[in-house]
Each structure stands twice: as structure tokens, then as C-alpha cells.
Automatic annotation (TrEMBL):
<dbReference type="InterPro" id="IPR049281">
    <property type="entry name" value="BVU_3817-like_C_sf"/>
</dbReference>
<protein>
    <submittedName>
        <fullName>DUF5606 domain-containing protein</fullName>
    </submittedName>
</protein>
<feature type="domain" description="DUF5606">
    <location>
        <begin position="3"/>
        <end position="48"/>
    </location>
</feature>
<dbReference type="InterPro" id="IPR041218">
    <property type="entry name" value="DUF5606"/>
</dbReference>
<dbReference type="InterPro" id="IPR049280">
    <property type="entry name" value="DUF6852"/>
</dbReference>
<dbReference type="InterPro" id="IPR049282">
    <property type="entry name" value="BVU_3817_N_sf"/>
</dbReference>
<dbReference type="Pfam" id="PF21186">
    <property type="entry name" value="DUF6852"/>
</dbReference>
<feature type="domain" description="DUF6852">
    <location>
        <begin position="51"/>
        <end position="120"/>
    </location>
</feature>
<dbReference type="Pfam" id="PF18347">
    <property type="entry name" value="DUF5606"/>
</dbReference>
């Protein structure tokens, strides 16, 4: 399953897997506890494939950031927790992405990225390289 089917819903913790669309929105399953929720069209929802991280040169797709974390951690969960201190999180993220824009990427963003990556690894959804080849085939 690609990042195109993984969602972040504002006001709800963790990530959600898109199950099906309905007339009034869609049904999603939590990657944290497996519970299904109904999400209306008015809810603020972000698809992970559409999220990018600011760097000093460009906006880097979240998939590429996850790939860099995956390379650093050899496919395992991160060596830091999203609950660690600000300085530890920033040092870790600087190791992963040395040219990230420190003025526009906040600690809260780094926490989310680390938490999301770990959730995807726990749920065996961390195959980011395969999705990239699909994108290049489309072009």
C-alpha cells in the first residue's frame, strides 16, 4: 500500500489507512489501534504522499525523507522517540536531512515525521522505494 492511501486527520492522533469512500466522506482505519472511523468531507485531512518538507534548496517529498530515515536505520524503527528532547530530535533530523530549513521545519513537524515513520514500520507499510518506481513509470 502506498502513501497515497495513508492519511493524517487533524485532531486525531496517529495515521489512518483509507478503507473506502462514501457519499459524505470516507471510512479510515487507525494504524494505532485498528479502530475504524468515519471522516466527513469538512475534516482537515492530509494524504502523506502530498506532504513535503522544506529544505534550503527545495521542498522534499515526505516519501524521500522516509527513505533517508529508512537508510539510516536499516529499515528498523528510529533510534530516537518522538517524545525525546527538542535538541535530540533536531540533531537526529539534521543527520537524516542536513539541509532542512530550520526556520520553517519546527520540532513538532520532526516529532510527527518520526512518529509516522515508526507507525509505518510497525504496520509493515514502510516500502517507500517501490512507490517511487511507480511514479517514474507514470511520467
Amino acid at each position: 500500500m502506498g502513501l497515497e492511501k495513508i492519511l493524517s486527520v487533524a485532531g486525531k492522533p496517529g495515521l489512518y489507512k483509507l478503507i473506502t469512500q462514501t457519499r459524505t466522506g470516507f471510512v479510515a482505519e487507525s494504524l494505532l489501534d485498528g479502530k475504524k472511523i468515519s471522516v466527513g468531507l469538512r475534516s482537515n485531512v492530509s494524504v502523506l504522499s502530498e506532504i513535503a518538507i522544506y529544505t534550503l534548496d527545495e521542498e522534499l517529498p515526505l516519501r524521500d525523507v522516509f527513505l533517508k530515515i529508512q537508510e539510516k536505520e536499516n529499515g528498523e524503527k528510529t533510534s530516537v522517540s518522538h517524545k525525546d528532547e527538542k535538541i535530540k530530535l533536531e540533531e537526529y533530523f539534521f543527520d537524516v536531512l542536513p539541509n532542512y530549513d530550520e526556520d520553517r521545519v519546527y520540532t513538532s513537524d520532526i516529532k510527527k515525521i518520526i512518529q509516522w515513520y515508526n507507525l509505518l514500520v510497525e504496520n509493515d507499510l514502510a516500502d517507500f522505494s517501490k512507490e517511487e518506481t511507480k511514479d517514474t513509470e507514470k511520467k
